[in-house]
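Journal club side-thread
Mid-discussion, someone asked how the predicted structure for our own chain would compare to the paper's figures. Pasting it here so we can look after the session.
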Amino acid sequence: MAAARRTGWEAARGPLLRSAGLLTFNFAAAAGLGFVFWVLAARSWPPDDIGVATALVATAMFLAGLSNLGMSFGIVRFLPAAPDRAALMNAALTLVGMAALAVGLGFVALAGIVAPPLAVLQTDLVLLVLFLLLVLFAATEPVAEQMFVADRRTEATTALALLLVALRLPWPLVLASSAAPAVIVGAWALGYLVSAGVAALVLLPRAFPGYRPIPVFAFSKTAPMIRFSAGNHVAGILGNAGPGLMPLLVLTLLGPGAGSSAAAHFYVAYAVASLLYAVPTSGATALLAEGSREGPRIGRDARRAAAWAAALLLPATLGLLLLRDPILGFFGASYLSASAVLVPLALVAWVLIPNSILATILRLRLRTRHLVVCGAGSSAVALGVAAALLPTMGLEGAGWGLLAGFATGALLASPVLRPSPGDAPPPT
């Protein structure tokens, strides 16, 4: 018994759960401050204005993920063994930055066709600039954060995560008389810009002696990571399409009036539920970092990460479900209509345990085609089910759509539990 307790204590102090714990704190702290931000915003503007702003933010974040090119995964996977880490880091940031500008401008040019509710970007110059800045720095800042994760310096990401969200907080109060979309998008852009600047100019040079943030276009030096990241990029984009495009789907299907309010209510509910998602996401990220160093222990570490996530999620989920009405009430009386959708959104956190861990094992074994199938299936089911249920169930249908989508992703990933002779070992 004593030996078992000693083993459990040693596991808890090990790098896997220590990193997972720090990452969970980062995500939870950021989500908590994000909760405060949306409370302030909801009390400063009507739901219709918040709905348009949330659709802009969600779309910008989706485009940022599209521009990320999978480099967040690639950095964690390959940076620990890279012979020239500074060149690899700068090449990744340069490539992602170029992609973000191209993708952002391309979306704006086509907004009137692909997203009519967001065509305002073509006529409002201030909103256009803020939107492009958000896409650019929301794409590059996470890559910089993952460099610390790859080097087992997850404590640095805490400061960045808190800084990123804290910088958003005052603007709904200071600029409450201004247009909600510009203020909210600008607040998000400012947070990512400053966080990326602090990471590149202050924290990364301290963590990686000799590093200087300069553009590097010698992408051939990073060819293995780019090949790895390309598949992860496609898989990630397909997988994020479900939650990333859901507010826009709600806004479009329910119409300009009801859709705007419903999009705001859904986004707020999703932001609240994201407090739970921090747990399985952090465990999977830590598992990727550790698995890239010590491949033979991936099975044991995966079980530990899953058990750790379940232990934290049980009380957190029960607490959220019991207190969901008082929590939503902070945003205003109209947001209580999102109470029902919080039930499936809370259950998503439990599906994310197998979903994220199995996806991590697929990444470690370089099964990117399998990842693409999982991501495509997950989002297709999420958006399809939501589109079918929204007209009859209203907002709750979007939540059940996301739950069905993530469950589909986990089922599609489950064959990875049977190792294949062609699986790639971790880099050495």
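Post-session note: Residues 1-13, 421-428 have pLDDT under 50 and may be disordered.
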